[in-house]
Amino acid sequence: MNQLLPYLEANRLEAGCDEVGRGCLAGPVVAAAVILPADFYHPLLNDSKKVPKAARPELAAYIQENALAWHVAQAEVEEIDRINILNASFLAMERAVQA
């Protein structure tokens, strides 16, 4: 939490959030939220759909090591069936951001 304090005091804390699994026919929908420092840079971090598959584990580790905070959350199949895939996506994203 200490590393977040300067950002909180400056009212400059923003989280990026995205989901995967929304197009799948089975399984949960998963979302991740990440808060990166203002000076964060990695040449591959621009468009997640353009990141080469082989580079993803290295990039994920780099983000996790350098992020101010990050979390992965999901909405289960039963929740998708009950509230629909769109709302389940929002629920997974909300859980990730809240964590």
Automatic annotation (TrEMBL):
<dbReference type="GO" id="GO:0006298">
    <property type="term" value="P:mismatch repair"/>
</dbReference>
<dbReference type="InterPro" id="IPR022898">
    <property type="entry name" value="RNase_HII"/>
</dbReference>
<keyword id="KW-0540">Nuclease</keyword>
<dbReference type="GO" id="GO:0043137">
    <property type="term" value="P:DNA replication, removal of RNA primer"/>
</dbReference>
<keyword id="KW-0464">Manganese</keyword>
<dbReference type="Pfam" id="PF01351">
    <property type="entry name" value="RNase_HII"/>
</dbReference>
<dbReference type="GO" id="GO:0005737">
    <property type="term" value="C:cytoplasm"/>
</dbReference>
<dbReference type="InterPro" id="IPR036397">
    <property type="entry name" value="RNaseH_sf"/>
</dbReference>
<dbReference type="GO" id="GO:0046872">
    <property type="term" value="F:metal ion binding"/>
</dbReference>
<keyword id="KW-0255">Endonuclease</keyword>
<dbReference type="InterPro" id="IPR012337">
    <property type="entry name" value="RNaseH-like_sf"/>
</dbReference>
<dbReference type="InterPro" id="IPR024567">
    <property type="entry name" value="RNase_HII/HIII_dom"/>
</dbReference>
<feature type="domain" description="RNase H type-2">
    <location>
        <begin position="12"/>
        <end position="99"/>
    </location>
</feature>
<protein>
    <recommendedName>
        <fullName>Ribonuclease</fullName>
        <ecNumber>3.1.26.4</ecNumber>
    </recommendedName>
</protein>
<keyword id="KW-0479">Metal-binding</keyword>
<keyword id="KW-0378">Hydrolase</keyword>
<dbReference type="GO" id="GO:0032299">
    <property type="term" value="C:ribonuclease H2 complex"/>
</dbReference>
<keyword id="KW-0963">Cytoplasm</keyword>
<dbReference type="GO" id="GO:0004523">
    <property type="term" value="F:RNA-DNA hybrid ribonuclease activity"/>
</dbReference>
<comment type="function">
    <text>Endonuclease that specifically degrades the RNA of RNA-DNA hybrids.</text>
</comment>
<comment type="similarity">
    <text>Belongs to the RNase HII family.</text>
</comment>
<dbReference type="InterPro" id="IPR001352">
    <property type="entry name" value="RNase_HII/HIII"/>
</dbReference>
<dbReference type="GO" id="GO:0003723">
    <property type="term" value="F:RNA binding"/>
</dbReference>
